Amino acid sequence: MQYPEPIAQLIDGYMKLPGIGQKSATRLAFFTIDMAEDDVTAFSKALIAAKRDLHFCSICGNITEGDPCSICADKTRDQTHVLVVEQPKDIMVMEKMKEYHGLYHVLHGVMSPIEGKGPEDLNIASLINRLQQNPNIKEVIIATNATPEGEATAMYLSRLIKPAGIKVTRLAHGLSVGSDIEYADEMTLFKAVEGRTEM
Amino acid sequence: MQYPEPIAQLIDGYMKLPGIGQKSATRLAFFTIDMAEDDVTAFSKALIAAKRDLHFCSICGNITEGDPCSICADKTRDQTHVLVVEQPKDIMVMEKMKEYHGLYHVLHGVMSPIEGKGPEDLNIASLINRLQQNPNIKEVIIATNATPEGEATAMYLSRLIKPAGIKVTRLAHGLSVGSDIEYADEMTLFKAVEGRTEM
Asked: Where are the zinc fingers (C4-type) (chains A, B)?
């Protein structure tokens, strides 16, 4: 016996999401059938709306409804700093911190030889272009993830930007605040020692 | 900074699903934005369709597009056995086994004093009614889960149905096929010894 067509379709839909296999998708599909109709309708509309109404900011690559995005359009922000991140969601994380008031640039990925992703597949050309056209940008802070790909991308960007006389910095590596040295991995510990600061 | 409204709405939508919190929902929402438009549209429509086109079978309580469901409507199936399950998805599991050819009845839950769920909240009245109107039903196989609530519900049903002279059976408990005795819990092992069969 097959699942009724509407369930089978819904299971297929859920299975398109990352980390959701046949079993989870089936569970979610049956849960959906028990959900309030309003919630399902709202969810369904939100899916379409997110796809239809959101675009990438033509300046920084952030996800936005308008263009440019609210950060690029905000002239009260520090126009001398550009923080480079891998994904739009990283901007949200930085903004939650409330301590950075400069601009952003989203690469939409990192260089990854394994996935065949080179610099030309990333939002790098527009960053270089942006730096050339805005001489008031004094520092580029690279905030790619602390993965091998993130490090390689940071290194590549640094070599590309430094010759133009712009300061390039990288987020510090070290122990998480509140964490035990005992549980830190060797690489993090090494970075923490290497980057030790005077008290 | 807040997420753009369409993303916030989509995150809300995902958070309505079981086991998906703020972080997972955010990840899924951003993933959705990168999905192919066709896939998102299909998913969105499937949500609405599943809610709109599916109903419970008026006879057995299974989820179905038509009424009665394809199993109740299939007169070639063994009309003398009714297998009682907690949820519609349990029917799919049984059907995959391909060894049971009788009918089903879905309780839509189990008795649970903690959740304040009594017999009157389950699809039990219609089961009794069905047994009374179909004298050709000779055996009711109770296949609720092997949880305390499932056991209690099985016991309750057994006491309710037996006096009518209908045979009531329960799925066997025991070791999983291919499993090691070493890893079986005491309760399962006890049930396996208790239910031992002659060779």
From this structure: 57-72
Q: Which domains does chain B have, with CATH numbers?
A: 5-53 (1.10.8.420), 77-198 (3.40.1360.10)
A65 to chain B: closest CA residue = B4
- Give the closest-approach CA distance of A57 to chain B in angstroms: 12
- Contact state of A50 with B29 under an 8 Å Cβ cutoff: yes
Sequence length of chain B is 199
Whole-number pLDDT of residue B40: 94
From B164's Cα to the closest Cα of chain A, the distance in A is 32
Nearest CA in chain B to A74: B1
**Which of chain A's residues have a Cβ under 8 Å away from the Cβ of B18?**
27-28, 31
Least confident of A113-117, B42-46, B171-175: B171-175
Q: Which of B171, B112, B161, B121 is nearest to B138 (CA)?
A: B161
Q: Given this model, what pLDDT does residue A188 score?
A: 80
Contact B51 A37 (CB under 8 A): yes
Cβ-proximal residues to A188 (8 Å cutoff; 6+ apart), any chain: A173, A174, A175
Distance CA B57, CA B63 (A): 6
ipTM: 0.73
Residues in Cβ contact with B51 at an 8 Å cutoff, skipping those fewer than 6 apart: A32, A33, A35, A37, A40, A41
The stretches of B35-174 forming alpha helices (DSSP H) are 37-53, 70-73, 88-97, 125-133, 148-161
Question: Among A2, A63, A42, A188, which residue's Cα sits nearest to residue B14?
Answer: A42
Residues B3-21: tens digit of each pLDDT: 888 999 999 999 999 999 9
Record: contact A9-B42, CB cut-off 8 A: yes
Residues of A in contact with B28 (CB under 8 A): 17-18
